[in-house]
Amino acid sequence: MKSCVPRRKLSAVIIAKNEAERIEDCLRSVSWADEIVVVDSGSTDATCTIARRYTDRVQMLPWLGFGPQKQAAVDLASHDWILSIDCDERVTPELAEEILVILTVDKPMSAYTVPRRTFIGNKEIKYCGWYPDRTVRLFDRTKARFSESIVHEVVVVNGRQSDCRNDLLHFSFASINDMLPKMQRYSELAARQMFSQGRRCRVFDLTVRPLAAFFKTYLLKAGLLDGVEGLAISVTTAVLAFLKYVRLREMQLEKNIEINS
């Protein structure tokens, strides 16, 4: 049996912008943490007002990209153990209890992944490759930090990691109609990141990749078992792949015009 020590203190960190409709449920779900840090990147709604009901650690910072922004929030925390959570996510009581137990273990791992249950409206998406969608959310910041990626950021861990058993709830989209605008924003960020890495768009990327994305999500990941939502996710994933490379091609052309002008 693992020996226990006095519980380590935990900082829950959240980045936000114009999340007045969703942030309160998120904050309420981590109200048991020793500290909540909210980093806002310029909300024009009541996001900060709501956040201040739960914490006095609300900091305004210009947008840096997902990885750098989340790391900035981590750096502002008072405690080394971090729980990173997004405004559209909720920590279940079972997950909270599990985390509190982890914080009493004599020699915990450097980081822990958390499985996410994702919803579109009230519909849980069980397939499409969306579950368990494990990602590192609980970690010791002296042994882990966010990548510099402006989108699709990850926690880079220097040490051993393990898995939490209990789920994080992820209310990603209010409806099917809400999916495309959000994914368009991600495609723009992904294109910028690829461009900064020197990636180039090929015919293969515009033709084969979108089709492959659809068949992978709908058939290989069993998206068809999620009904209409599964079909919508599969189509949107294909469109996202196409738009990402179209935008990358546009950036290449813009650069060529600048060079030749």
Q: How do you describe this structure in short?
A:
The protein is of the alpha/beta class and 261 residues long.
Main sheet characteristics? 7 strands, mixed
Strand order of the largest sheet: 3-2-1-4-9-6-12
At CATH level 2, the architecture of the largest domain is Alpha-Beta Complex
Beta-strand content estimate: 15-25%
Uncertain regions: pLDDT < 50 for 5+ in a row? none
Query: Which CATH class of the largest domain applies here?
Result: Alpha Beta
Order of helices and strands: EHEHEHEEHEEEEEEEEHHH
Q: What would you say this structure looks like, in words?
A:
This protein is an alpha/beta fold and 261 residues long. The protein folds into two domains: 10-173, Spore Coat Polysaccharide Biosynthesis Protein SpsA, Chain A (Alpha-Beta Complex), CATH 3.90.550; 176-260, no CATH class. Helix content is 39%, strand content 21%. The chain has seven helices and 13 strands. The strands form three sheets. A seven-stranded mixed β-sheet has the order 3-2-1-4-9-6-12. Strand 7 (116-120) and strand 8 form a beta hairpin. Helix 5 (179-196) packs parallel to helix 7 (227-260) and helix 6 (203-220) runs antiparallel to helix 7 (227-260). It is globular, with a radius of gyration of 20 Å. The model has no long low-confidence stretch (mean pLDDT 95).
